[in-house]
Amino acid sequence: MAETVTNWAGNITYAAKELHRPHSLNALRNLVAGSSRVRVLGSGHSFNAIAEPGADGVLLSLDALAPEIDVDTTARTVRVGGGVRYAELARVVHRHGLALGNMASLPHISVAGSVATGTHGSGVGNGPLASSVRAVEIVGADGSLSRFTRDMANRFGGVVTSLGALGVVVALTLDLEPAYEVEQHVFTEMPLEGLDQATFETVMSAAYSVSLFTDWRAPGFRQVWLKRRTDQPLPDFPGRPRRRRRCTRCRACRR
């Protein structure tokens, strides 16, 4: 019986001959080796057919694998299983006094999926989520398990953001840093007048993360959200809007 799955928005449907949720690495390797066409499901935050294996292909979910999260406090790294989501990862590393330098915008997003698809960071000063990857473990088409590390230089970026073309990502090793807190400042009514390219770039790089909101009716932005690390000063920038409120401080793992 054919299986169909949609992305999170429900506007893209993926069809496959079968949907599998292996419970062990060995079962996954055997499944991949015995299949002619495989696509892996993450949290479904893609607006394209990247996970479409075709009617005769196989869809693979890593959700049933053990949620491996192994923290090395000396090296400040964490080895993460392919099915782990950002919320569970952040909670574990925080218990060790550590944190990720950047995370996805929603807690349930798959770490491996966001890395493989080259997902952006939360601010212009933050690299893509893949920039924190130190090593990646992939099950290839023949079921073999390979490990690739950052010292591969020019080839490593292509392996990390391979969009699933090289195989199934079953584990990642990520860089960590000392735990920190983030607070959000909300400003209102930022006019477009005087907002040239240079000023816009200054605004967007003014904090750890900057978000602009408009209803397209007013000649400007209704709200500007600045998220800053509390160990850094609140920035100033040209045309700074009126300050509205500041949220309660939150730990980086809960933002």
TrEMBL record:
It comes from the Bacteria. Keywords: Oxidoreductase. The keyword Oxidoreductase applies. GO terms for molecular function: FAD binding; L-gulono-1,4-lactone dehydrogenase activity; oxidoreductase activity, acting on the CH-OH group of donors, oxygen as acceptor. Residues 12-179 form the FAD-binding PCMH-type domain. It holds the Pfam family FAD_binding_4. PROSITE patterns: FAD_PCMH. PANTHER family: D-ARABINONO-1,4-LACTONE OXIDASE, L-GULONOLACTONE OXIDASE. This is FAD-binding PCMH-type domain-containing protein. It comes from Streptomyces haneummycinicus.
